[in-house]
Amino acid sequence: MTRLSGNPPAGSADVVVIGAGHSGLAMSRFLSARSIDHVILERGEVANSWKTERWDSLKLLTPNWQSRLPGFVYSGPEPDGYMSRYEVVRFIERYASFAGAPIRNKTEVTSVRQQESGYRVETSRGAWRTRAVVIASGAFNIPVVPAVSKSLPGRIRQLTPHDYRHPEQLEEGGVLVVGASATGLQLAAEIQRSGRPVTLAVGEHVRMPRVYRGMDIQYWMHVVGLLDQRYDEVDDIKRARGVPSPQLVGTNDRRTLDLNALGESGVRISGRLVGVRDGKAQFSGSLRNVCKLADLKMNRMLAEIDEWIGSNGCHDTTDCIERFAPTAVDDTPLLGMDLEKEKVRTVLWATGFRPDYSWLDVPVLDRKGRIQHDGGVADAPGLYVMGLPYLRRRKSSFIHGTEDDARDLSDHLARHLDVTARHSRIKIAV
Prior knowledge:
globular; 7-stranded mixed beta sheet; 2 domains; FAD/NAD(P)-binding domain; 5-stranded parallel beta sheet; 9 helices
């Protein structure tokens, strides 16, 4: 049984893992397999972010058959379905029990500092001495809200996906959703269905069909090898790590959710929000170009899938080649909107997230507060990070992508512990 309560006093361990989400638990599984002494420190409970920081209707973007962690796979009745937020929580909780993970719940990390023999980890329940630290606290801790938010009239309520749970919590009236990645599209569609008029401000985005040639798009990305593309094979890894999440939604009918579908449902589409002056929102005129680029990239990916199907002799077992209608953009796109006249009462910022490393007192952060690392190996001996987008592979931020990353990094970590142990023995001998 996993130790989910009791929380004995703090002490020492060879490795401290910060965070009991799927990434921290996957790393724990590999450390246990190597008999490496470790502990997981969790500020709340297992799968805490899924329990407390997600909207009610959220579902995974990946099909259930793709949900797996080291030694543990989805075994439910709907392999082609998509887990709800609550099912994800149960999946991760079951994995924690299966893995027998040494978890200390309700133990908030307040500081991590280097010392001669490794690190000192201060927590709300005392300090830990450790030779290595794995940061698995997630990539989506703090919503990113642009500076233009300060120019909005005070009467308008501003929310982020961390605050939003369901449409009923919103005032009656118009809603401006800013951001068109997976989160922005899903919330715009849900709020529009509630009867509130929605305007969606669109910037850079990744368009993707839910189903292609009879199969889920994630199936093709898996078999073609797109999800396994490594970070050291990418020309511009910083750029790749900043690409928005694809416009996908998990539904029983496996429908595609894109700007065309939203427009047909009544959502008004605008360009990127660039300013607010005197209660009037101003939008970029580049919407057409942004959408053309997203269409182009989607078609390149579909062509790569077609080429793989042809090279592997799969034509007879798949549907015919498909191409999708270009994103429809009005001849005179919306460039401005009087928020009072349009009765906009809420702005929902679906503009991304960033990790929270306010407690990390190790000089490994860049000027934007991101950990500098090489495929999860941070720029400090014995410090590692898990669960970030494109950490080691394109699939790194997905649940199923954690296993390969944890295996690689646990290998590196084990070698680090061996080296430090040899150095300690040499010092004692001298």
